[in-house]
Amino acid sequence: MFKSRKVWIYFENDVFIEAKSFGTESDCIVGEAVFNTSLSGYQEILSDPSYAGQFIVFCMPEIGIVGCNDNDMESTMAFAKGAFIRNINQSKSNFRATSNLIDFFEKQGLIGIFDVDTRGIVKMLRDSGALNLVASTSINDKEKLRKILLDSKKINEIDYIKEVSTKEGYIHDKSIFDFGTFDFSPAMKHAKKIVAIDFGVKKSILNELSNAGFIVEVISSSFCANDIVDRYRNGEIVGVFLSNGPGDPSFLTNQIEKIKILIEARIPMFAICLGHQLISNAFGYNTYKLKFGQHGANHPVKNLQTQQLEITSQNHNYNVPESIQEIAIVTHRNLFDNTIEGLRYKHYPILSIQHHPEASPGPKDSNYIFKAFSDMIEQEIANG
User: Rounded CA gap, 81 and 19, in Å?
Assistant: First the structure.
């Protein structure tokens, strides 16, 4: 049996609990708790940069069964603060596994909180909304932990984009996973080039863009908008992708101003999750925070264009407002709460969606949207 330590957790709603922990040796960690309803794909979830600054409360009670492996990483490292787990499985049972979840948490610097009533925590978050918390393996005094949490910045006051975005640009050289070879297919060599602005992009999204026929050049979130405009006008690139990422989109005022320049230049754009929200803000339609967000791989979304139901993967706390219908057509709606899930802008070549269509770890119902982006670009080229 692995060695665990006691951990004390104080939530901002004054709930104080004791549990067991594994992973990082850090003795005091502050973050925001959200729950995820996925039944599988815990490694992809933990390595999704959109979870930066957050603790993930897994609804699935058994976590760690299939172990971990390098191919299932969605980023170079995990940016989440940690996770709440009912039962942790030390042994792994999958031929692709190269390590167990205990080793993964230690390597990634995550704190795992287990032997805790995750169902009760999920109910609390459902009723109270996403909650800030502090977890400590050395401080067991409730009032001391309360003071630490009160003195700490909230997630909407921190620019996590600087942490998760690439520092240097690169060409993404992989495509979708090939289950025949159990490796990723190489990217297409003769294809149209797009720029993908990295706000915390998942590798599987880049793979799907490659599979849709694009050469994908990934650049930092501190991009130069005028340089992108020049490259588009001289024919070097055919479009821009705005990625998913963590935090409050309204906090990213610098990026919003740059996106306004891209919009004015009428560059074809496709955006997912945070990128979808940033475009809304750039048009002057401010995003708002949901009570507890949408996190999971089993969320029903209705495609209003085809009238078909899609089961989707979700990970976000913020949403675009209904008023955006003044300038955009709503293409998708969430059937849990009827919030907007997809937009096509009326007078601009822009598509955006709130959910994650790349099917990692979730279903593949929505990955047609990558081809829709390619088709939109072809139409723009045909129109001159």
Answer: 16
DSSP line for 45-80:
HHT-GGGTTEEEEESSSEE-TT-B-GGG-SSSS--S
Model confidence at 1, in pLDDT bands (50, 70, 90)?
low
Burial 9-46 (b: 16+ CB within 10 A, else e): bbbbeeeebebbbbbbeeebbbbbbbbbebeebbbbbb
Considering the candidates 295, 299, 316, 356, report the single residue annotated as catalytic.
Answer: 356
How much is the pLDDT for 149? 98
CA dist 353 and 328 (Å) reads 12
Query: Would you state the structure tokens that stand for residue 5, as one six-digit string?
Result: 């330590």
Structural element, H or E, at residue 371: helix 369-382
Q: Tell me whether residue 358 is one of the annotated catalytic residues.
A: yes
Place of tokens 């992809």: 44
Per the annotation, the verdict on 68 as an active-site residue is no
Whole-angstrom Cα distance, residue 40 to residue 252? Answer: 32
CA 367, 373, 376: angle at the middle one, nearest 5? 145
Please tell me which residue in 273, 276, 299, 310 is annotated as part of the active site: 273
Identified catalytic residue from 44, 74, 341, 358: 358
Helix segments in 265-365, DSSP class H: 274-282
| Chain segment 310-358, per-residue pLDDT in tens | 999 999 999 999 999 999 999 999 999 999 999 999 999 999 999 999 8
